[in-house]
Amino acid sequence: MGAEKRELEADVVVVGAGPAGLMAARTLARAGEKVVVLEARDRVGGRTWSDTVDGAWLEIGGQWISPDQTELLALVEELGKETYQRHREGQSVFVAADGARTVYSGADFPVSPGTVAEVDRITAILDQLATEIGPEEPWAHPKARELDTISFHHWLRAQSADEDACEIIGMFIAGAMLTKPAHAFSALQAVLMAASAGSFSNLLDEDFILDRRVVGGMQSVSLAMAAELGGAVVLNAPVRTLAWGVDGVRAEADGVRVTARRAILAVPPTLYSRISYEPPLPRLQHQLHQHLSMGLVIKVHAVYDRPFWREAGLSGTCFGVGQLVQEVYDNTNYGDERGTLVGFVSDENADAVFTLSAEERKAKILGSIAHYLGPEALDAEVYYESDWGSEEWTRGAYAASFDLGGLSRYGANQRTPVGPIHFACSDIASEGYQHVDGALRMGRRVAEEILASRVS
């Protein structure tokens, strides 16, 4: 016999206390609805997480805000939080495919004029496609199937014979955003990524896409929303079974049972199958969810006694086509005398280093950063790897995307409720796709749909 469960009743039960779930619950509660939020972890915030590691305060999860992320910016302001810009003064470093290191200024990488021209030309094509197709219903565009049945890798080579230009463009979508090899997702998925950020040009501009951070960390936004909800948020309560029908839902979680009229699944689509459904979800949902998968990226934090790179006139911003660590940024915290770098090891590079021991992996990763910024990068006082792929309740990063053909085949159904069950997460957002902003937009959107259905 198991221990007795707490019995709770609500208008809406929300599964997941990340930004999407908390925004949904907050919106509903403010409209007078009774909500219960069930969170599997012992904390709120989902893929945002700020913590102290070996005496260093780190943003382990999502952290940046770009100027177009108005939902997030408005919430941060409403909560009375301050933001600060990422440090970007100084020159950047570029490492070419052959390992040659160049210090440079300006927006263009220090590559041949022909490659710069090709990057600009392909960027213009992607910007036009992003404008034409848009983020809301890319699957409905006449070109959707054509773009969705060719990998982004092969689409790029069909546009240009300049391999360096193709690699540079691919790095920003594959390594930096979807965190999958460019052969593993479609050109349509890449266009959605660009459209969700306003344009592909925005994704190329690190000063735009990685503009500012929240003083106190991005997780503090979720903590503030959870504080408003008080006892409605239940931690350490993974939902095991969701029974549903015309009369509502019953969520069976560890230690608690919630009966409600509706449910919102505010977790990554890759976790939907962790729940048993009574009756089972429709065939379409079973298929849809199997065609979405997480990317893989290691977010590497290296903390030093000072931001030594600034002494050499460097911003800390580094890019390397084909390098182990393809991106590096100055991630020094607000008011901190110490210097922090953050680097990213994506997709197949992450696969490779995870076959190594922890010490070997650290040596290789810091060695890659040192190739950009010099031997002092080897002497980190604190070193930490955010490995969301090993997180039981996430299983990858940054978010889920469709396999080849999946977006045009299933995209129209990913946000469609199933009876009383609704879906909200950054993985299925349009604007702000894969970002905290998109999670908040989806949370609000689903809550408003539920509220509208009550009065219709």
TrEMBL record:
Names of required cofactors: FAD
Similarity comment: family membership: Belongs to the flavin monoamine oxidase family.
Source organism of the structure: Sinomonas terricola
Keyword DNA damage set for record: no
Coiled-coil region list: none
Domain Amine oxidase: 20-451
InterPro entries, sorted: Amino_oxidase, FAD/NAD-bd_sf, Flavin_amine_oxidase, Flavin_MAO
Gene Ontology MF annotations: oxidoreductase activity
EC annotation from Swiss-Prot or TrEMBL: 1.-.-.-
Keywords carried by this UniProt record: Oxidoreductase
Protein name (database record): NAD(P)/FAD-dependent oxidoreductase
Enzyme class: oxidoreductase
